[in-house]
Amino acid sequence: MTWKLGDSVEKEDRLYVKRIIGLPGENIEYRRNQLYINNERIHESVFSRTKTNDFRLEEVTFQNRITENSYFVMGDNRSHSMD
Q: What is the pLDDT of residues 58-67, one digit of tens each?
């Protein structure tokens, strides 16, 4: 999920709290439950027991890199999230 600065994150009277995963210009990928930013493995100790399905940035944003003034965010409840 990507947002531009100033975009709302509220839906149906609920506030969604998301963690910034990627910054403009970066490429994001999850492989075997591991986060890779620009092909470098990033250790996420908070999520060691949380399953994150494999994906590549291009599959969810149709972009090779996060565009200028945009960020890639994910919720902490990844194994039960629909976003």
A: 998 899 999 9
